[in-house]
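ESCALATION

Customer reports they have been waiting on this structure for their group meeting. Please prioritize. Original submission:
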Amino acid sequence: MTDDTATVPRVPARWGPWRGRVRRVAIHSAGRARNGVVHVADRIVRRARVRVLATRELDRQTVVGQRALVTRLIQESSGGRVGSGPFAGMWISDETSWFDGSLAPKLLGCYEQELHDVVEEVVADDPPVVVNYGCAEGFYAVGFALRLRSTDVVAVDIDDRALTVCTANAVRNGVADRIRAVHPEQVPPEVLATPGIVVIVDVEGDEARLLGPDGLGSLEHATVIVECHDDVVPGITDLLARRYGGTHRIRRLHQGSRDPHQYEVLQPVRETSRWLAVSESRPQAMTWLVLTPLGGADGRPDPPL
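Update from on-call: job pushed to the front of the queue and completed.
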């Protein structure tokens, strides 16, 4: 008795529920047309592969479409203004420089909610300058300009479109006179030397260079808030913690959960769309470091406990 399975092409395990069906059909065809079994089975597997890829693309488009629809719903309901969190009331343009700009969670007020308490700490400290590297559309740059009326804000990005959108958001929110949107090489050295400065860093993996000796230097007088992209540079969180451990107090903040059911605007939509609305589409669980000068933000020693 001939074993028809011996000549059937291997069906990849990643095809999931399609795997068993494709293999059964291929084996059946092999039994009926043994002389042309390899060609028949290959043709079946190729057709199935096209169907699997088409299904995956449809699923991807469905997710993107659902995200776009729920984002539009939130925009229309909110009038383009942030609904909660430390930047509540800030107007955000629907123009983005980075995919969809995580517009939905920003408008809901849950974007990077792990940093909400840190934002309030910065506001309480009332720093003279905030410099935001990787400003994108200006969520933090404009937000801090709104909350800190006597603080100068420098929004920094390598992307011209990001700087254009950031400037437009600053104008719409009435803070354009206190925000400079510039490329990295245009940041004045004396600004970075300001005692008590706050530096926010979100540069998609370039933080190892930027926060190194050949970048911004020790920043021993600065409070630094950095998003660590261990998915791009494995171990970057630990590297930066070691690098600044002698001059700064290190706090690690880990990405937490979101509750999409708390938002009234999301109640009428399907559950999958609710979760998509609060998603920030992270490639992996994110970690932030908050680096506070051991000598105090103003350069003076910390007061005794």
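Sent to customer with the following note: The longest helix spans residues 37-78.
Escalation resolved.
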